[in-house]
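Feature request, filed as a ticket because there's no other form

It would be nice if the structure record came with a short human-readable summary line next to the tokens. Right now we just get the raw output. Example of a typical job, pasted below so the devs can see what we mean:
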Amino acid sequence: MSGDITRWLGQLRNGDAGALDALLPHLYGELRAIAQGLLAGERGGRTLSPTALVNEAYLRLSRERRIGVADRADFFAVAAVAMRRILVDSARRRLSGKRGGDGVRVDLDAFDAGLVADAEVDELLAVDEALDRLGAQSERARRVVELRVFVGLGVEEIADVLGLNEKTVRRDWLLARAWLRRDLGP
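Raw output as currently delivered:
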């Protein structure tokens, strides 16, 4: 089984459209768990279930010509970012026209454990916009935040996915948190 997953990931990297179809059933449970974690912070009246979120992410990923993933953890990171984008797009549609000029308070310490459970929709939008700005400054720091916050990977796993040493990941995490605190306000 593990050999098949590695083979399918390689095919996915090379643009084989059928590889995603072959891979999905074997990783579905883990993808659904990521989706549940991302949806945990949604207030009542949410429009997506974990199953629907995984399916939407699959559709988005299937439109990609090539999905550059090195390994299983990297695949989950790419899928989690796709799911986050879906949630952000959904939140933007729901809140269009309702968002005032008030600042949004975001508790970055709540994200330390890789959980988004307490984030409200407006916080999710504020963090997403801040991540875009952070990415303009340092794409690597942005990836560290995404892997830590939205996928829930630890420092060692992030280092493996990004091909960095753990000290660099810790430094990027600390710098990104400080940058986001400054960008998002008190």
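Something like this underneath would help us a lot:
The two ends are 48 Å apart (CA to CA).
Confidence is low (pLDDT under 50) at residues 110-119.
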